[in-house]
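Thread: "does anyone have the structure for this chain?"

Original post by V.I.:
We have the sequence but no experimental structure in hand. Need at least a predicted one for the grant figures.
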Amino acid sequence: MFDVKKVTNEIIKFIRNYYKENNLKGVVIGISGGKDSAVVAGLFTKALGRENVVGVWMPCHSKEEDKFNALKLAKHFGFELKEFDLTKTYDNYVEEFKNINGANDNELIDANINIKPRLRTATLYYHAAYLSSEKKGTYIVAGTSNKCEIYVGYFTKGGDNIADIQVLADLTVEEVIKVGEYIGVPDNIVHKVPDDGLSGKSDEDKLGVKYSEIAAVIENNSLNISLEVKNKIINLHNKNRHKFNTPTFKKNLN
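Reply from O.Q.:
Generated one for you, tokens below.
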């Protein structure tokens, strides 16, 4: 059984210990308006103090609701929120690519979805480098992916899979919600239907399976889901294995 109080305290201790051991100062978190980044922000605020947490809201043809949630979250936990609008950067990037390659919009649908988290990751690390200099102490970037997303490879290579510390990567979506409720994340955010804010679809619509079903497969508790759904989840996991490790050639010294 998931002990939310115990796990929450362990995560906070984990963060504090890592920061102490590595002489770190603060954290930069991409705030999306959804529950994962909200829970991460809440945990770091409790672990480090709000003065050492900087959230970055990075709209890119984004929904106004997400901006409202980002502002609400920052006010709720008291951390600084910066807005860095990537819309023009993204538009210029795509236009330049189309000019060079003669590509059309239909050919770039997936590429366009994936370039957004890569631009956002670069922006987070840019902020971390600046803050480390400006605040006279090292700031690192926190990841916001949960265990279900990671298992099926629902992340962008070179984008939202890149981070310096992960605190939700061993928690299923349901467990993330429980932690969010426990630390007081606003109800409309912690129970918001998860979506990538990029494609206009919910995560589960895009994946074709439910997060609860993914959790069931991960936890070897899939008796109540169909064989078709189970196989689909396993196939997603296997298809995206290339995202988990980088094959590295090593010389044979014999």
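V.I.: this helps a lot. The mean pLDDT is 95.
O.Q.: and The chain has one domain: 4-193.
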